[in-house]
Amino acid sequence: MIRDYQACLERTRAVMLGKEPDRVPLYFLTSEDVAARITGLTVREMISSPEVLADKTIMVNNFLGCDNMALVTNAYCGPFEGLAYARANGREDVFVWKDYTTPFIREGLLCQTEEDIENLVIPDHSQTEPWPTFFKAIKIIQEKTGMGHQLGPSLTWSNVQMLRGSQAYLDVKLNPDLLMKLCEKIYASQWDYYEAYCKMAGQPVSAFECSYAFNRHMLSFEDAWKFEGQFIARFARETKLPLIIHNCGFKPYHIELIEKLWEEGVSVIALNASHPLDIDWWVDFRKRFPDITIMGGLHVSAEMENGTEEDVENRVKAFIKKLGPQGRLIITPTCCMPWRVPMYNIKAVTHAVEKYGKYPIDID
Ligand SMILES: [Zn+2]
């Protein structure tokens, strides 16, 4: 099954420009678990060379039938940024490889003490693997398909948690200056990631920014802004890139974050999230922010994990019915799809988008 890449691109472009596409686009955030199932390869086999990684990425995205081209080893600065930190600091012992799922760094071990934070070495993203392999793969994918840009910084909270662990939550109250020092180092590393990305994969048109601190059960909005938000705004201003905000938490500060970013002069073109699950909340969001593309619709731990194919279809149908007619909608299950999500429920999303997403939307 070969996808029409040009049609995928035009569909997405129309939505982002506020025009009517032929149908609602579909994006999947693939990642290691689903890629291992489809390719039959281990994570380390998938990243054994840029050519293999590019080839398997195209294979997986074609199989899923989506309109994007997500690298099968997630290119955002989460787990693999942890690996780069482990390597740059001569501490590969704190990184845990997994064969058929996402590997991870043991949290809080690289920055246990103040001295650790002072001495933390920032990875050189044009040299420290797996980043050069990822960037070269993105370049190959673009040459073959015209798709595949995916600059995914994480400023800063996922990195704070990887490096400092749960101690960071005490630092917010007891040791804010030290935590700020760590955030500045993370910013410097994310800037290096951005420069290496541009050099090796080309200039992206937007940044897919992960905003993990912005959830009510994590931090107050003020603290989330202080230790994450201001770095997101700085990155957007310095790169001049518009942002797609990703937030897969359960109690997100979507409205507050977008309004604050606007105040700071940052352009937010899309919101990738699934919570709140109440579809009417998204109808209100659409009224409030008519120019922001909604990339969501269903959560991977709801119908996709626990429901039937019919449940998945009905959820996608209901979302498209209420939010499709006004445009600016990309169905995107959030977040990455873990092993617990059955393959038939993943395919059910694709079938439902094809069945109900054609414009003009006509669902009774
Ligand atoms: Zn996520």
Give the key terms.
7% strand; two-stranded antiparallel ribbon; alpha/beta; 364 residues; 7 strands; TIM Barrel; five-stranded parallel beta sheet; binds zinc ion
Summarize, please.
This protein is of the alpha/beta class and 364 residues long.
Describe the structure.
The chain contains 16 helices and 7 strands. It is an alpha/beta fold. It has one domain: TIM Barrel (Alpha-Beta Barrel). It has a 5-stranded parallel β-sheet, sandwiched between helices. A hairpin with a 7-residue loop joins strand 1 and strand 2 (about 105). The two termini are about 30 Å apart. The structure holds zinc ion. Zinc ion binds near residues 246, 248 and 335.
Question: What is the topology?
Answer:
Elements: H1 5-16, H2 32-39, H3 43-46, H4 50-64, H5 79-88, E1 95-96, E2 104-105, H6 114-119, H7 131-145, H8 157-164, H9 167-174, H10 176-201, E3 207-210, H11 221-239, E4 243-246, H12 254-263, E5 268-272, H13 279-288, E6 293-296, H14 303-306, H15 309-323, E7 329-331, H16 343-356
Parallel strand pairs: 3-4, 4-5, 5-6, 6-7
Antiparallel strand pairs: 1-2
Helix pairs in contact: 2-4, 4-7, 7-10, 9-10, 10-11, 13-15, 15-16
The protein binds zinc ion.
